[in-house]
Design goal:
Layout: E1 2-5, E2 8-11, H1 15-21, H2 26-53, E3 56-64, E4 67-75, H3 78-93, H4 96-105, E5 110-114
Antiparallel strand pairs: 1-2, 3-4, 3-5
């Protein structure tokens, strides 16, 4: 709407004018929205694809010295799941690099894997 005041024409401010006054424009807001949607879609795709690769769960119990610890892990195959579970259990009952190498190199007391 145009209002005439004296000799100068002024128009009423709209919401678009307020955004422009704050440094925003419709184009930059649309680009931000599109960028956010692309990022969210990409993240959802990565999570969906990663979840499909974990097919095997292994529960491993290891003993080191007088301590015994059990741990579970998931992976795409049984060998990787067993290795990850063994490392996780050994890392909780050992101190230092030498002990963890000896622990992970030993045969686990029990291994149970399921798909």
């Amino acid at each position: 709407m145009i209002e005439i005041r004296g000799t100068r024409r002024e128009r009423k401010k709209t919401s678009a004018d307020r955004f422009s006054a704050q440094g925003y424009s419709r184009g930059s807001m649309n680009r931000t929205l599109i960028g956010t949607l692309i990022l969210v879609t990409f993240a959802a795709g990565v999570v969906y694809l990663a979840m499909g690769q974990f097919k095997v769960r292994c529960h491993v119990c290891v003993g080191f010295g007088v301590q015994r610890k059990c741990e579970s892990a998931v992976a795409s195959n049984a060998a990787d799941a067993e290795q990850q579970a063994t490392y996780g259990a050994c890392s909780q009952i050992t101190r230092g690099v030498t002990d963890i190498v000896r622990c992970t190199g030993s045969v686990p007391q029990s291994v149970r894997c399921e798909e």
